[in-house]
Batch of 2 targets.
Target 1
Amino acid sequence: MRASSKNRVVKEGEKLKVYVNSPAADGKANKTLIDVLAEFFSVKKNVVRIVRGEKSREKTVEVIC
């Protein structure tokens, strides 16, 4: 994930590419990622979690409905 000018989600085939405007330091980008995906899927933040890749640009995220 690269810092972007604004937060957004782009669908590419069956994957989602998420752009966040927070720096990767101190887990800020991961927190923003969860916020953005919760809003995208219209769910609460506590049902979105990073399953794999917490320190990587590519992540596997789980949304429990």
Target 2
Amino acid sequence: MKPLVLIPGFMCDDRLFEPQIRALSELSAITVAIPKEKIIHDMAAEILAQTSGQFALGGLSMGGIIALEILRQAPDRITHLALMDTTPLADAPANYDIRTRQIADVHAGRLGTIMRDELKPAYLVESPRKKGILDTCMDMARSLGTDIFEAQSLALRDRPDLQSALARAPAKTLILYGARDRLCTPERHHLMHRLAPHARLVKIADAGHMPTLERPEETTRALQDWLA
């Protein structure tokens, strides 16, 4: 079976990919990597150290950023690449103070408040699934806790521009995004497609930043086609 490494987004765990893991486990031996380092470079290096040989790689949001850094460090080891609702760009300068303040607030005991009031409202479109997905997001964040929040926030805040990595994207590259993603906008994905024009570009209608949970059937089909 093909080894597949999936990297979830900020303060998420394997539950972000639960519908896809159920379906793709017939095609691949799946590992979900939860990044804990404070630098994107180190997150990528640790995943590479924990994985042997060649493998398929998929990441959503922060996970996609780490996937690009893995591609930059070891392009010959990546057979398939899936970039979902992510960006190759460095963090906006305006986010520096916001992320720094959020870290302080979380250490002061306000993890739930920050996740609920500042981060998660922009993630999803209105749908019958929204409340259940938000509840799952809160559970994932509580499970990961304060130290992971700080590490992942610092890694995102200080990340480099990774546009150049896309020149090494493998032939089997998928760029997938929710059509109504407000965090990693469709324009970011069209940019990545221009940098890797051989990639397959897939838009998931009626989804925001988490199409894996918002539109699981469509997202899973796209990933099955990508791996086949």
